[in-house]
Every structure is written in structure tokens, then in C-alpha cells.
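Hi U.,

Before I forget, here's the chain from the pilot set. I'm dumping it here mostly so it's searchable later in email.
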Amino acid sequence: MASMQEAVIEFPDNMLLIDLCGEYDRNLAEIERKLSVQIVRRGNHLSVMGEEGTVQEASDVLSALYARLESGRAVEHGDVDRELRMGGSDDESATMTGDQLEMFKGGPVEIKTRKKFVEPRTDAQKSYVRSLFAHELAFGIGPAGTGKTYLAVAVGVNMFIEGHVDRIILSRPAVEAGEKLGYLPGDMKDKVDPYMQPLYDALNDFLPAKQLAKLIEEKKIEIAPLAFMRGRTLSNAFVVLDEAQNATSMQMKMFLTRLGEGSRMVITGDRTQIDLPRGVPSGLADAERLLNSIPAISFNYFTAKDVVRHPLVAAIIEAYEADG
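Structure:
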């Protein structure tokens, strides 16, 4: 039977301790639930009780979250989740900009955008973000909810506002997800916008609405179906192809060969959600098979453990994988 242990941690600033605990102590409850410990507050001390290994882990998480508050940043549910997943590292955060690769020293990573800082919440996400800054062509492959597209767009916004690229180009194949929607009303933009909405959602998280609208009007940010990429050379741009599993082999080859001078390209996709007609091979699978031996191209993989949406999403993905 594992030995039980108690650790007492002092937090000098009582107001910061209140923020650390969260509304109705929800942050403490989350740590207790995930690590099977008991946390009791006594004045400006927190007493952590449980098995030896989990007590140390919970103490590290609490200390890392408090250090975050001391640096002037907020602690939200996502921050608690990140520290629990990343092991409560208390290294100083390295703010990531286009010309700062401090993240390679091994500390936590932050991506600066106009509206907020974005931080990876799993080791796979952290490795992925590093690859996006280090490689001109990178792939992010894994199930839904693992942050593949979200982090890629965040890095693109960062590199744009830092002046390392002149524009952002976001693309998706306009493929219906297993159902026929019929003819959509409106002009070309009205017809394709429903397919592109997830990309707009990500951009809205990183840029103020008025600035985003202006950048789209000025063509500094382009959101277009994959078919619109043919014949172009994409220079000095940060280019993202989302839902790449729904690109055909010919479309994937066409897209990859658009890469121009001074550009970076990110391909994201989920091999389990292919919506192409039966018998049509996925361009993502072909690209992975043909290009994985090229050292300059980075392949990054995610699993259900990297899902950062609702916890049920990870359970659903694992159930489908087990049945497959």
C-alpha cells in the first residue's frame, strides 16, 4: 500500500491565493479530482494530502499556477488543465515571437496574438508549436479537438503581427461531411463561407473584429477553398490547409507545390474523418507516405490524450478507436 503524505505550501499574497483557488474553489476541486488528492485551505496555506507521488505533483501544479498569478496573468480552467497535463513545470514562460526561439530551451511556450496569449496544453501540442516555428512545412495529424488548426492559426497570426510574413492564407477542401446540403444561396463567398467557418472562429479568437474585417478586405488574410489555390505561388505567407484528409492526392500535390519564397505551410487533418467518395484515396495519407523521409518536413501526431475540448470528446474518440 502506498504511503500517505501531507505537504503544506505557503502563499504570501492572500488575494492571489483566492484567484488560485478559483470561484467556489473549483480550481482546487479540479486538481483533487484529477490527481486523487485532498486540498485543505488554512489561512494563506494549502495542505495537500494523498499518496507520495501525487502530493508532489499537486504541489508543483499549485506552485506553477501561483507563479503565473504573480506574473500578472489570470488562471482559468484551461490553465489548470494545462498544468495538470504538463506536470506542473514552474520554469519561467518563454513568450514566443517570430524571432525568439526561447521555447527550445524546454520551458513553457506562449504564442502572442493581438487579443491574448495562447499556450499549448499538452506535450504534443508544445512540440507541434515548436515545429511550426522551426520548419517551413509541417503536418499536424490527429483526432478532432487536439488544437491542430487552432494553434496553427495562432502561430500564423503571431508571425504576421511580428512582420515575418506579409499575409495569412487559410484553406479547406469544400467537402460535405457525409450529407448532401444541396445548392446554397448567394454569391461565391456565401456558398463557401459555411465550410470555412471554423477558420473564421479561430481568427476571431486572436484578432479584434474590426481589424480582422479590415485585413480580410485588404487581402492580408485570405480564407478560400482548396480549389482556389490552383495556379498560385504563395510567397511571404503563412499558409494553413485544414481538414487535409478530404483533399485528393492531386489536390494535395497541387497545394504543396504552391509554397513560395519566405512562406511557411501547415497541413492539418484527421485520418479517421475522411469524407471523400468511396474509392478516392486521401491526399493526406499519400503525403504522409511519400514525404515522411524528408528531414526538412515535420510530422506531428496527436492522440485522444491531447484532446482539449470537453473531456467526453476524448472518451468518445477512444471508444471509436477501440471498436475500429
